[in-house]
Structures are given as C-alpha cells and as structure tokens.
Design goal:
With 280 residues, the protein is α+β, with helices and mostly antiparallel strands. 16% of the residues lie in helices and 40% in strands. An eight-stranded mixed sheet has the order 2-1-4-7-15-12-10-11, with no helix packed on it. It has a five-stranded mixed sheet with strand order 3-9-8-5-6. The longest helix is centred in the N-terminal third of the chain and has 24 residues, at 2-25. The structure holds copper (II) ion. The site of copper (II) ion has 5 residues, from loops.
C-alpha cells in the first residue's frame, strides 16, 4: 500500500512536471485573422499580436481585391502612405511590402500565412481595375497595429531554409517553380529574390482562354470573366517568406504579377511576369 502510494505520488509529480513543460515544447498553430474586402473598404481588426499569422481574405465583391500589408517605419501613417503613392507611384523608403493574401474571386476566400514583426502597418488594395483609380484611393486603406508577440508563438518560417518541393521564387521578371503544379490542394512557400518586390496572383483560366484574355477583361470587367482568381501572395520585398494554400483542378492557370516597376511604373506582367501553367 505504501509502495502504491509512493508510485502514485511520483506519477503525479512527473505528470505535474510534464504539464508545466509541455506548453513551451508544443508548437503553436499560427494565429488566424479574417479580413473582409468589398467595393471599397476593408473590414479587419485594428490590432493583432506579432508572430506567424494566417490571413483569410474574404472577398464580398463585386470587384477584385487583395489585402496587401505594408510596414510603415519612421512614424509614418496610412494617410502618409496613400498621399505618397498618389503623388509618386513607387513605394517610399519608409514603407515595405510584406505580402498578404492575394485576390479571391467575389464570394470566395484566399489564405496566406506570414510572420509579422511588431509595428505599424497599412492594409491596402493597390488594384486599379476597372477604371484605373487605385482602390486605396477609394477607401481601401486601413491601419493595422501589430503588438508585441505572445509568450509562445508558432514556428517561424526560415528564410534560409532549403526551398521546399512546392517552392515558388519571385524574381525580376519571372516565376521560378521548383516543380510542376499538380491537381489537388497544395501549400506553397513563396520567397522574393533580390530585386524588386513581386506578387503571385493565381487565376484559373476557363477552357480555351489565355492569360492575355484575362488581363484584357480586367481592364473593363464587362461581361463574363474568362477565369477565376484563386489567391496567391500579395506583393513582398526581397527576403520575405510567405506561404499560401490553393486547390487546383486539371486545366490552365495564369500566374501574374501586377506590381508596378520601380523604374518604368509599368506592371510587371508587361515586362514578362505572366506565365501560364498546365495542371494535370
Ligand atoms: Cu513582379
């Protein structure tokens, strides 16, 4: 009886020790944040903790929108950023593209995970179609404060880690896929190589339609769309690592970057950054 008690007490002590150590050892899932977009506003939290965060972008439409996160340094505000983009076009030195979920079709959702450091951010939509007026000028610019991280955070994606099987490297002016995309749901790690900031927007093309058909349609957005946006990652500067998940069925997909060139102001797709991939 005495031995049993001893075993029982020892067991309780060990269990106690384990339960104290477990929270630090167990990997935490990424925090989850939902952003809703509509013509022309974002609905999003004003404040979130730093760390690895999965953003769900729900597009309430009727237009096409992304949620691009831009870090603001030097005490600058969202209003400063909008004013600067309006007058200069290119991103000012105190602002850095850090990515975010790219465009889902109206009524759909896209998902991207990124590692945010504490600071002041803007959530922007820099798309300008139809009509050529950037959506951030029409109300799609919102402040986001990223506060100090919680005591335990999710594992951080490492920029120097080997590129996984589903790696996509965004480079001036080409998408480099580590391996062909196959049908199914896949998670991709997207990195931006040294050079300009880039995005990858993924569009499922209708049978017989080309990437150029889709680009032409976006200019007016009249009539049925020749394809459907399924997300990807919004613009990110060199060194940023993001992850997105999307589901593919057999057919043709367009990968496109609409970020304006820092020198010419032309969208990167005009300079070659649009590519059609066949999914089998
Ligand atoms: Cu680009």
């Amino acid at each position: 009886m005495r031995q049993l008690s001893y075993a029982l007490v020892l067991g309780l002590i060990l269990a106690g020790c384990q339960s104290k150590q477990m929270p630090a050892a167990a990997p935490q899932p990424p925090a989850s944040v939902t952003i809703r977009a509509r013509d022309f506003a974002f609905d999003a939290p004003a404040k979130i903790p730093a760390g690895v965060t999965t953003f769900h972008l729900v597009n309430d439409g009727p237009g096409l929108h992304h949620a691009l996160l831009v870090r603001l340094d030097s005490g600058k505000t969202v209003a400063d950023l909008v004013a600067s983009l309006h007058t200069q076009g290119a991103m000012p030195a105190w602002a850095k593209y850090v990515g975010g979920p790219n465009v889902p079709d109206p009524g759909k959702e896209s998902v991207a995970t990124l590692d945010l450091e504490p600071g002041n951010y803007a959530i922007l939509c820099i798309l300008d179609m139809p009509g050529g007026v950037p959506h951030y000028m029409r109300g799609m610019a919102r402040a986001l404060t990223v506060t100090a991280p919680p005591a335990t955070t999710a594992a951080t994606p490492k920029a120097d880690a080997p590129i996984p099987d589903n790696g996509i490297v965004l480079s001036d002016m080409v998408f480099v896929l580590h391996k062909p995309i196959t049908a199914g749901t896949h998670t991709f790690q997207v990195t931006t190589a040294p050079g300009q900031p880039h995005e990858v927007l993924v569009v499922q093309l209708d049978p017989g339609k080309t990437g150029q058909d889709y680009v032409n349609w976006t200019l007016s957005m009249k009539g049925p769309a020749p394809g459907h946006a399924i997300g990807g990652t919004a613009a990110a500067a060199t060194g940023v690592v993001q992850v997105f998940t999307a589901t593919f069925v057999p057919g043709d997909y367009l990968l496109i970057c609409l970020v304006p060139d820092v020198k010419t102001g032309k969208p990167h797709y005009v300079e070659g950054m649009m590519q059609t991939v066949k999914v089998n």
